[in-house]
């Protein structure tokens, strides 16, 4: 009888630890309670490299996450919704940009605060946005302009 009681207690302890781990992991991934947060919206021409769960950063510090991405069928822009911490109140003229951590790094939403005296309300839209820049597109422009210049200069 003592062995079965010990086994039951050990099993219960393992289950409790597993449940605690799942709750901790869920909160870290943004599945926990969303108290202390508010949502903002922005429309981007391109959100390449951005997915639900991507960081939203201000001055390099994570202040929120992307919670929803949809295509607007009228404007053909990507509508992004992100959840920010309540303690971070952004001026109305703030900008949202799709930025990259470097050539091999991932993308994130960068917030550049404006100078307005009034702050964005929960559910408001950031009007000033800049979508992601395609590295391949930039390289093709550079190669194309170099080739065009060599033809006009008469260089081989």
From TrEMBL:
Residue stretches making up the Mce/MlaD domain: 37-114
Chain coiled-coil ranges: none
Protein name: Phospholipid/cholesterol/gamma-HCH transport system substrate-binding protein
Annotated InterPro entries: ABC_MlaD, Mce/MlaD, MlaD_Phospholipid_Transporter
Single GO MF descriptor: phospholipid binding
């Amino acid at each position: 009888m003592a062995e079965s009681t010990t086994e039951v207690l050990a099993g219960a302890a393992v289950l409790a630890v597993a449940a605690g781990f799942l709750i901790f992991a869920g909160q870290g991934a943004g599945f926990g309670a969303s108290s202390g947060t508010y949502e903002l919206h922005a429309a981007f021409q391109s959100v390449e490299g951005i997915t639900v769960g991507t960081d939203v950063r201000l001055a390099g510090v994570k202040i929120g996450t992307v919670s929803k991405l949809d295509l607007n069928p009228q404007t053909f822009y990507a509508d992004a919704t992100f959840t920010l911490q309540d303690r971070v109140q952004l001026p109305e003229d703030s900008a949202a940009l799709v930025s990259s951590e470097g050539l091999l790094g991932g993308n994130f939403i960068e917030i550049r605060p404006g100078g307005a005296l009034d702050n964005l309300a929960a559910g408001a839209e950031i009007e000033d946005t800049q979508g992601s820049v395609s590295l391949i597109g930039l390289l093709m422009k550079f190669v194309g302009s170099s080739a065009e210049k060599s033809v006009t200069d008469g260089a081989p």
